[in-house]
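Q&A log
Question type: sequence-to-structure
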Amino acid sequence: MRVAFTIVLAILILLAVSSGVTKVMLLEQDINFFGRYGFSNPLLIIYGLTQIAGGALMVFGKTRFIGAAIVAITFLISLVVLVMDGNIPVSVVTALATLLLGVIMKQSASEPRRTNSSARVR
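Response status: OK
Response body:
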């Protein structure tokens, strides 16, 4: 089960970072698609940077929950725009990725936290 978790986590991190990079690069497809729904270029860059930051936070156990939450929010925004556009196949994939981010969040929240107070004193 741990191997499957790691594979899903890696895929979601790559998906978040690659999605963010395409927005930061202002690819024509993203500009046209999101522009139809009121996203300006600066807003698209901020949106992409948020996805990249969320993906980076997911790498580390201590920040995984907040990173997954950030990416989930950005994916939900994309999901709304995709549904408004009528792009059902990509909407289904985005919804699945968002659900998997929820699983990552649940798993991360249930992992025991190590603190300095739990360290042995010699």
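Response note: Helices lie at 2-24, 28-35, 41-57, 64-85, 88-110.
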